[in-house]
Amino acid sequence: METTENNRLIAEFMGFEVFYRPYSNGFIEISKSELCDVDDMKYHTSWDWLMPVIEKCLVGEAEQSEEISNTTIKNIYEGICNQDISFAYKSVVEFIKLYNKNLVG
After folding, report:
1. What is the distance between the alpha carbons of residues 26 and 69, in angstroms, rounded to a whole number?
2. Backbone angles phi, psi at 78, to 5 degrees
3. What values do phi and psi take at 81, rounded to 5?
4. H-type helices in 1-105, by residue range?
């Protein structure tokens, strides 16, 4: 369930519109022209899915708070350099949570 929620968080960060509807495996995610079951999102297992998210995280990194720059952005780079998708994914999720917190707070 945590992976599903994290993938939903990433999809929203990427600008996809997320609608919740009961479905056999949980929820569905509907974007502009696509329908994707949240359980079928591969942000946590595919560099092809994750790299556009990483790119969006790193755009404007100089404007990010010191907390975000010193922790999550450093960890994103470490995940990429070590080719560790699991670590990069977790770092992206943490970045988005801090980013959203800073937007609201």
Report:
1. 34
2. -60, -40
3. -60, -35
4. 2-13, 47-58, 66-68, 74-81, 85-104
Q: At a CB cut-off of 8 Å and minimum separation 6, what does 54 contact?
A: 76, 80, 88, 92
Cβ–Cβ under 8 Å, residues 94 and 102:
no
What are the tens digits of pLDDT across the range 1-45?
789 889 989 988 998 876 665 554 455 555 555 667 677 789 999
Residue 65 amino acid letter: S
Q: What pTM was computed for the model?
A: 0.81
CA dist 90 and 96 (Å) reads: 10
Contact 18, 101 (CB under 8 A): no
Q: What per-residue confidence (pLDDT) applies to 102?
A: 80
